[in-house]
Amino acid sequence: MPKVENGAAPVGLQFGKEMGTLALPGEEIGKLVDTTPPHGLQSPQDQKRAVVRLGSGVTQRGSSLLSSKAGKVCFDGRRNKTWVENNQKRYVPALEDMVIGVVEERHSEDVRLDINGTDTATLSSLAFEGATKKNRPHLDIGSLIYCRITRASKNMEAEASCIEPGSNKSWVGGEALYGELKGGNVIQVSLGLARSLLVPNGPVLTTLGAKIPFQSAVGVNGRVWIQSSSTEHTVLLSIAIAKADTMPADEWKAFVKKMLEQAT
Amino acid sequence: MPPATKRSRSRGGGAGGLEYISLDGLRIDGRRPTEVRKIRCSLGALSRADGSAYYEQGNTRVLVAVYGPREPHSRASIQHDRAVVKCEFSTAMFASPVYRRTWKGDRKSTAAALVMQKAFEGVILTASYPKSQIDIYVQVLQNDGGALVAAINAASLALVNAGVAMSDFVVACSVGFVDDTFVVDPSSLESASDRPELTLAVLSHSAKIASCQLDSKLPDGESFERALEFATSGANQIFKVLEYEVRKYSLNLLDSRGLVAL
After folding, report:
1. Is the CB of B250 less than 8 angstroms away from the CB of A3?
2. Could you tell me the CA-to-CA distances from B106 to A168, B91, B112, B203 in Å, in that order?
3. GO cellular-component terms in the record (chain A) (predicted)?
4. Which residues does chain A have within 8 Å of residue B71's beta carbon, measured at their own beta carbons?
5. Superfamily of domain A98-181
């Protein structure tokens, strides 16, 4: 059985019995089950829950669900969603992803961001909390922007925004969640590592944070921004995070320990 | 190491009086007719490419790099509804016993590149990456027969490594016909230009054919079907190895994050 996150059992789909947790492209990971009233679920609440959501790496052929990538089969019971988690280097924009973009072009009303994908994303100069035509951030070419994706369609250019829903912190105060990242260092890691860095209390950032205090921003497009009190520490942290991409967990811990000992 | 070739009085068929199948029913390199050469492969061999694979099948060695989905190089090649798959097939100068100047645009390379392009176009879910391009670069480092087969298998691994969405996993295998016997995965000694050779690429899960190419004629229609059977069984042997490798690779990735939950 695939790893079930958030408890609830799948509704409207049945995972393949002999499924391991890893799937290859073309492998059947499960089947859709008919849940219309005569067959099972009666209550409207269950009916509502029976919407099966397919995430990345899962395609449907007839009633069977096939994997289209090689990776771990995942299931989120809360949203009744299944996907195949893999590791890759190219980013494909998805709605509400937090990404770190680099300003590539400046226009009068917006800027073009390189978000490490096939195409660029546009960020309106007014898409900052409290920004007006006269009072808006000055974004130079090459500056780093931490933002979220507000429009992701495979046929259109992605759109990014620095406005955080439910917050009214102005961009001027420097307290807003999104905005320009000043100073520090940015590194490129695989998308899988970036996603795992975002897991609360993940092993990598916790281990490093216990040794060196630092600030970081992680974009799911594989960019990680790190800032600490000194350049030396920032460089050490950058190397350590980049190494976490390929090293096995225990080897990495030993590596970090040794590196910090030699540095101090 | 090329095996010592036994020169004996020919049982007919073999060019240059070479005995391809011994009296014990073994081939020149000691394999049984249905046996595939030893396969070794690894994913992510190159750090700069989005996906890459190194692949060895006997003494045939190839390196494949995959880039993309990325922005197309020329505006003219953009397809607004799907990704374009491009393939480049090149052979190193030192790949064959004769040191020879090669270039990627020669007839054989172009044909091989086209076969691969067509095979993968049907498998990659191109509709999910409109207005983009996926490049497959093949470099044959050593050619001991079956370079195309090795290239297709390596490209499959590289695409998996790149995380390109595919409807199925492509595996290729070739079958030669020497001394009235079908030999799976012929080496360069067994495959000469005048002899029939079938190169087959199949989709491993749905068992559909992605590409099928026959050089020289087989005696009759029935033997073509037998050749297909041999090629499919060879492809299944190869798939087992590749599947194991991909699973091992995925597991290692999860392990590197301390995420293994098996």
Report:
1. no
2. 63, 10, 10, 28
3. cytoplasmic exosome (RNase complex); nuclear exosome (RNase complex); nucleolus
4. 118-119
5. Nucleic acid-binding proteins (2.40.50.140)
